[in-house]
Design goal:
The complex is a heterodimer of chains A (370) and B (89).
Chain A lengths: L5 E4 L3 H12 L4 E5 L5 H4 L3 E2 L6 H17 L14 E5 L2 H16 L5 E4 H7 L9 E5 L3 E2 L2 H12 L3 E5 L2 E5 L2 E4 L4 E3 L2 E4 L5 H5 L5 E10 L9 E4 L2 H5 L5 E9 L5 E9 L8 H14 L8 E11 L6 E4 L6 E5 L5 H16 L14 H9 L1
Parallel strand pairs in A: 1-2, 1-12, 2-8, 4-14, 12-19
Antiparallel strand pairs in A: 3-7, 4-6, 5-6, 9-10, 10-11, 13-16, 13-17, 14-15, 15-16, 18-19
Chain B lengths: L3 E6 L2 E6 L4 H7 L6 E2 L5 E2 L12 E4 L2 E4 L10 E3 L2 H8 L1
Classes of the chains: A alpha/beta (370), B alpha+beta (89).
């Protein structure tokens, strides 16, 4: 077998999208994955335009535009629904934040509509009383990410070789697998989340544990993904545990309830106290949830860079090593943008958006400044 | 003398010994399944101890686990409408 042009490590939705896009650019790709479920298997699959900073907004808005071409082609088992996001304001001052958010989204041509309390109730009638209003972002949606990742791999066709194996060492242009195989390519793209720490001998990625719970199937009562506008505030507490309301109606009639955040706890067992806090938070918004049956709860691990933004592009000082890491909770949303960006960089083309905010070299600068 | 009680499963009367779980009552009915999976497969009670969630069913209008619910006099146990139409049409 001839050596591939690129080896992608990690077949979650980010690695799978990168592998697919690279084959579209005419490259031969080997995708290697250890077969263990990662964040793609555990997460919600929310396609959401996020605007915590201008670079994140540019990446998510561009990715959502790329998704719009992909979504109609997905098979039914990818469960795409264009349910939009309803951002919920509990307090009147959160409506001011909703208006700022509307303006930021409008600046990148993403439509949204502010809702007063009665307009919010008209759009989602079973919401609890007392909400101040909200913001409706109709372009957001949901998918079932594990099947989308499989579909990307199928779409890649004959230029892609998908192998199962655990990468234990990176000595570019070589990768060493635990079973003794060695793989070689001029470009090696790491899309293996916090697993990259060991391969790079760096501590760039921290795990951020999250928990989800899902109900039994019920007749549909909700038609939007619901997220509290206070999400950014409560979810981004610097350390310790936090919860924020985030709920997704699944096509099966189930309700997927989140979310929680906890740094550096590698224990995958659900934390019942944090789970209870998360469910109480959900009942603040939807009191009738208390009468429903939960059938499963589970945890997963986001991977976070030191500044919370992904590391995309070339390794700062190791030619031939490329990074698609640290997407935290936005890996599903930003998989296409990540894939297009990396494919352009690896093939020496100019990306459609500014790549500078994502370069890992920023981490070295921060260390010097610290 | 053992007490017996009457309940209905999909509207059909069934008599069981007091203390019987709904899962055991389902096992004595003509079709022991509790529900249909998303892909339409029959799902009977499995673990019997409230863990696997396979036996979820509607009891007196609420979703419950059949294996964790004792039968009561007059109880209405209902599988979903699609299940009933598939089995009885």
């Amino acid at each position: 077998m001839n050596a591939p042009d690129v080896i992608v490590v990690g077949a979650g939705i980010v690695g799978a999208a990168c592998a697919w896009r690279l084959t579209q650019r005419g490259l031969r790709v080997t995708l290697v994955d250890d077969g263990r479920p990662g964040a793609t298997a555990a997460g919600m699959g929310h396609l959401v335009c996020m605007d915590d900073n201008p670079a994140e907004l540019a990446l998510t808005a561009w990715s959502l535009a790329l998704w719009r071409d992909i979504l109609p082609r997905l098979p039914d088992n990818c469960a795409w629904r264009d349910c939009g996001t309803l951002w919920l304001a509990q307090q009147p001052d959160e409506l001011e934040e909703a208006e700022r958010k509307r303006q930021r989204l409008a600046d990148v041509q993403v439509a949204s509509e502010p809702l007063c309390a009665s307009a919010l109730t008209a759009r989602e009638p079973t919401l609890g009383a007392g909400l101040a209003g909200g913001l409706w972002v109709p372009g957001d949606g949901i998918v079932y990410a594990p099947n989308v990742a499989r579909w990307f791999i199928e779409q890649a066709g004959e230029r892609l070789t998908h192998i199962t194996g655990e990468v234990i060492a990176l000595e570019e242009p070589w990768l060493q697998l635990r079973d003794g195989r060695r793989l070689q390519a001029p470009a090696i793209l790491l899309a293996c989340a916090s697993g990259a720490n060991k391969l790079l001998a760096e501590q760039w990625l921290r795990i951020k544990k999250g928990q989800l719970a899902i109900t039994d199937r019920y007749p549909a009562r909700l038609s939007h993904q619901l997220v509290e506008l206070g999400y950014a505030v409560s979810a981004h507490a610097p350390d310790g545990k936090s919860v924020a309301f985030n709920l997704q109606p699944r096509p099966t009639g189930q309700l997927l309830i989140g979310s929680s955040r906890e740094y550096d706890n590698p224990d995958s067992r659900p934390d019942p106290v944090l789970l209870a806090a998360m469910l109480h938070r959900a009942c603040d918004f939807l009191p009738w949830l208390a009468d429903l049956n939960l059938i499963r709860c589970w945890s997963g691990f986001r991977s976070a860079s030191p500044d919370g933004q992904p590391l995309l592009g070339p390794h700062p000082h190791r030619p031939g090593v490329w990074l698609a890491l640290g997407h935290e909770g936005l890996g599903v949303t930003t998989a296409p943008g990540t894939a297009w960006l990396l494919a352009d960089q690896i093939t020496d083309n100019k990306p459609a958006i500014d790549a500078a905010p994502w370069l890992a070299s920023r981490l070295n600068r921060q260390e010097v400044n610290a | 003398m053992t007490q017996t009680i009457n309940l209905t499963i999909d509207g059909v009367a069934i008599t069981v010994v007091e203390g019987t779980s709904v899962a055991a009552a389902l096992a004595r009915s003509p079709l022991p399944a509790a529900r249909l999976s998303v892909s339409g497969q029959l799902r009977p009670p499995f673990c019997g101890m409230g863990v696997c969630q396979e036996c979820r069913i509607t009891i007196d209008g609420k979703r419950r686990l059949a294996c964790q619910t004792p039968c009561r006099a007059g109880m209405r146990v209902e599988r979903d409408a699609k299940f009933r139409s598939d089995q009885h049409d």
